[in-house]
Design a protein that fits this description.
InterPro entries: BlueCu_1_BS (IPR028871), Cupredoxin (IPR008972), Phytocyanin-like (IPR039391), Phytocyanin_dom (IPR003245). The chain is an alpha/beta fold. It has a single domain, classed as Sandwich (Immunoglobulin-like), CATH 2.60.40. Helix content is about 20%, strand content about 20%. The protein is built from four helices and nine strands; from the N terminus they run αβαβββαβββββα. The strands form two sheets. The protein has a five-stranded mixed sheet with strand order 2-8-7-4-5. Strands 1-3-6-9 form a four-stranded mixed sheet, with no helix packed on it. The longest helix is centred in the N-terminal third of the chain and has 20 residues. The radius of gyration is 19 Å and the shape is elongated.
Length: about 200
């Protein structure tokens, strides 16, 4: 019985250690998710931040005036909004970062993307140190033009493989599935030592 208690205690503490390292980001901070006056606003916002697996992005916006589409790099660069990986229209949109690598988000309303309402980030494993590739994804600059004849995308969330969109407000973008608990290694070792003392 004592061994079961130790195991359960250990697992709870490991889960707590991982949660401690996760951060919640309000995209755009006080400006929130809207068409910016500076096309580089979201590039600047992401610069200097380290996005890790387990962190959460929250896009807050006026319903019906903006949306959040998860898109490919090509769609991001060209503001192509016809076939997003996922589209969420009900604010706030909360996206759990569950994979490493670049991830791309745009607004599909009107010409908002072309004028800078787009965000690219690079997600690193939980054990990565600041400055190890987090922040804005490579090539995240603005200036892309939309595809000719583009129209706003569909208003219902799509659910590709690996993406969950309950009620259109939360999603976990599909990706390579890479994850790491490296950032919690020391804490896990410490907790293991404490549990062993029981």
């Amino acid at each position: 019985m004592a061994r079961v208690f130790k195991t359960v205690t250990f697992l709870v503490l490991v889960f707590a250690a991982v949660v401690v390292f996760a951060e919640d980001y309000d995209v755009g901070d006080d400006m929130e998710w809207m068409r910016p006056s500076d096309p580089q606003f979201y590039v600047t916002w992401a610069t200097g931040k380290t996005f890790r697996v387990g962190d959460e992005l929250e896009f807050d916006f006026a319903a019906g005036r903006h949306d959040v589409a998860v898109v490919t790099k090509d769609a991001f660069e060209n503001c192509e909004k016809e076939k997003p990986i996922s589209l969420m229209t009900t604010p706030p949109v909360k996206i759990m970062l569950n994979t490493t690598g670049p991830q791309y988000f745009i607004c599909t309303i009107g010409d908002h993307c072309r004028f800078g309402q787009k965000l690219s980030i690079n997600v690193v494993g939980t054990g990565a140190t600041p400055g190890a590739g987090g922040g804005a994804a490579p090539g995240a600059g603005g200036g892309a033009t939309p595809a000719p004849g583009s129209t706003p995308g569909a208003t219902t969330p799509t659910t590709p493989s690996g993406t969950t969109t309950p009620t259109g407000t939360t999603t976990t973008p599909a990706g390579n599935g890479a994850s790491s608990l490296g950032g919690a290694t020391f804490l896990v070792a410490f907790v293991s030592a404490v549990v062993a003392l029981f």
